[in-house]
Write a structure and sequence with these properties.
8-stranded mixed sheet; Rossmann fold; alpha/beta; globular; Dihydrodipicolinate Reductase, domain 2; about 325 residues
């Protein structure tokens, strides 16, 4: 009998324990061979619940001793770089949650290691796999849509631990989403408002290589228990709107004009298409993209394919974060 695909997990915090590990049930058959965490209490909690024999407080020791096929790392942006580097140099593919590193220089170094070792660091920008956003991108690429001329997204949350942490862990998601939808983008302006270091907001303007324009509004001024996320793509006489992750509306030109003053009838090929799944159904699947990205990562490794977004792709997203900071600094100097 062929042995199962063996995974090593680095990080046993709540995100891994409560969600990421559960998502593996949607992936091709895998075995959690070993787990690693500096916090022995978290390590024991995870290993006992998931019945994992291999337990380590040093990921390098785990990489050296365990017969792993790949690694999933969910720690924080200060440690992802070191773990990804060590994994690839140990001959292992690795899935690392965003943010993959702290700077574009670190991302470029990881990209070089990825190239020289032939191993891959896939970055967990899950909005590329969210059901609604994948549907929106597919719609925007239909010939009838005519391309994306205007882009607008909102991505808000509760007060963060700091402004720096907010940018590199939250705003970065929608910078990457804009690239996913529109290709490479150039930032043109960044505006900022702040109450204190934990409560800030940005409006980020950009232009795509294809000539489309867009804005991203992101702030830590809301309460995340309210709807915090929205996307609108505007094409030729039609748009697609994703609201609160699980609601999508594709508005197409109607079959009749309002000047006709007669009874309307919805028509095929026109009017609105709506996706809005029931929240009353037993929640077997989240639609947040984690299930799909982990399935994709593991299947790619099994098939010998390079998954995306890998670290080469993420170099540009890291550069956008730094360009955002540069534009803010220039703006402050001119005030």
């Amino acid at each position: 009998m062929e042995s199962a695909f063996k995974i090593g997990l680095v990080g046993c915090g709540n995100h891994m324990y409560e969600f990421i590990a559960h998502c593996l049930k949607w992936a091709p058959p895998v075995t959690i061979q070993a787990v690693c965490d500096l916090d022995e209490a978290k390590l024991e909690r995870f290993a006992n619940y998931y019945n994992v024999a291999g337990k380590y407080t040093d990921y390098r020791e785990m990489f050296a001793k365990e017969p792993l096929d790949a690694v999933i790392c969910v720690i924080n942006e200060t440690a992802h770089y070191d773990v990804a580097k060590a994994a690839m140099l140990s001959g292992l593919h690795i899935f690392v949650e965003k943010t993959p590193c702290l700077t574009s220089v670190e991302a470029e170094e990881l990209a070089q290691i990825q190239k020289s070792t032939g191993k891959t660091t896939m970055v967990g920008f899950n909005r590329r796999f969210m059901t609604s956003y994948v549907m929106a991108k597919e719609i925007s690429q239909r010939p009838e849509f005519g391309g994306i001329y205007m882009y607008q997204s909102q991505f808000n949350t509760s007060p963060y631990r700091s402004e720096a942490f907010f940018k590199i862990n939250h705003v970065i998601h929608h910078l990457d989403l804009a690239r996913f939808m529109m290709g490479e983008i150039t930032l043109t302006q960044v505006q900022r408002v702040a109450i204190d270091d934990r409560r800030v907001g940005y409006t980020i303007s950009f232009r795509s290589e294809q000539g489309g324009i867009g804005t991203i509004q992101s702030g830590s001024l809301l309460d995340e228990l309210y709807p915090i996320e929205r996307l609108e793509l505007l094409g030729d006489r039609r748009n697609v709107v994703v609201d609160n992750v699980r609601s999508l509306v594709y508005n197409r030109p109607p079959g009749q004009r309002k000047e006709q003053y007669k009874t309307y009838a919805l028509v095929e090929g026109g009017d609105a298409l709506v996706w809005n799944p029931s929240l009353g159904v037993y929640p077997r699947y989240s639609y947040h993209g984690y299930e799909d990205e982990l399935h994709y990562f593991i299947q790619c490794v099994m098939d010998g394919r390079k998954p995306e977004p890998n670290i080469e792709d993420s170099v540009q997203t890291m550069r956008l974060v730094e360009e955002m900071e540069r534009l803010l600094a220039v703006q402050q100097q001119t005030l």
